[in-house]
Design brief:
Blueprint (H helix, E strand, L loop, with lengths): L1 H26 L6 H27 L4 H8 L2 H21 L11 E3 L3 H24 L4 H27 L2 E3 L3 E6 L3 E6 L3 E9 L8 E3 L6 E14 L5 E9 L4 H15 L8
Parallel strand pairs: 6-8
Antiparallel strand pairs: 1-2, 2-3, 3-4, 5-7, 7-8
Helix pairs in contact: 1-2, 2-3, 4-6, 5-6
Length: 274
């Protein structure tokens, strides 16, 4: 089964880009050879039928719908799709003034303020580009429609990046620190693994082994040193061990005080003198 799934993925990496190229050509008014169209559509149909058959077989073997999809679709593709959906959902949460992942009794610390001006400015530039391209491509309706869709989605994407940061603050519970950056980093650190934490404003971040830099507006304001590593996950699913974490908060000193108090409360109280 694994060999069959691997073969289907290899075919998909060839057929899906060909299908997309064919669609772009047809929308642009370019007529590909009939043989190429027939071969591409036949390959796409056979791929869909084969994946449907494998999906049914996986379900019969006891897989749930979600696990069957995970077997068929590469994790990196699923994570990218999930990231896009999280961005769109973040806009809904932001509009409703709600937050994601803040449980009862947990302290929340925002970290989006220092990137707001940059992302708002970028979104404004994208809007200006959208208007300009709509004017320039007014005489080419197909090209205008494609570019308009891409430009509007870019504006929504940029707004979603900021909304994800606003609606996903850092959280601190009785025994766990949860650090987040947008919708692509979500790191849980048990307080008992934090060896030291300090206020440390850094504006340049070189790549270092075992160091996670969660910069906001090109800066971090807190540095955490861990006595035991924790596992972080990159956007595409790659895992790596982290011993030093640099993060940022809108009120970094208040975040530091709360984290210090939580660590002190977690530490065992000294026993009576002997």
């Amino acid at each position: 089964m694994k060999r069959l799934i691997k073969a289907l993925r290899g075919v998909a990496y060839t057929v899906i880009p060909a299908e997309l190229a064919l669609v772009v050509c047809l929308l642009a008014g370019v007529r590909p050879p009939a043989a190429a169209v027939t071969a591409t559509e036949a390959a796409m149909l056979l791929l869909l039928l084969a994946e449907a058959a494998v999906f049914v077989r996986l379900r019969r073997q006891g897989h749930s719908n979600r696990s069957a999809v995970r077997e068929l679709v590469p994790e990196s593709v699923l994570r990218l799709i999930g990231h896009e959906l999280k961005l769109m959902w973040s806009i809904v949460l932001w509009t409703a003034r709600r937050r994601s992942g803040v449980g009862p009794g947990e302290q929340a610390f925002g970290h989006a303020r220092d990137q707001a001006a940059l992302l708002y400015g970028f979104a404004f530039v994208c809007v200006v580009e959208t208007v300009g391209m709509s004017y320039l491509l007014g005489d080419w309706p197909i090209a205008h429609g494609i570019v308009l869709f891409l430009d509007v989605y870019t504006v929504i994407f940029v707004i979603g990046l900021h909304a994800a940061s606003v609606t996903r603050p850092h959280t601190l519970s009785g025994d766990t620190l949860r650090l987040r950056q947008g919708a692509h980093i979500d790191l849980r650190i048990p307080l008992e693994r934090i060896e030291s934490v300090r206020y440390d404003v850094v504006f340049t971040h070189a790549k270092e082994e075992g160091v996670l830099n969660m910069a906001v507006g090109s800066q971090t304001s807190l540095t955490l040193e861990l006595c035991e590593p924790v596992t972080a996950v990159r956007l595409l699913g790659r895992e790596y061990e982290v011993r030093t974490v640099r993060c940022h908060a809108d009120d970094a000193r208040a975040f530091l005080r709360a984290l210090t108090q939580a660590r002190n409360a977690l530490a065992p109280s000294p026993g009576p003198p002997v």
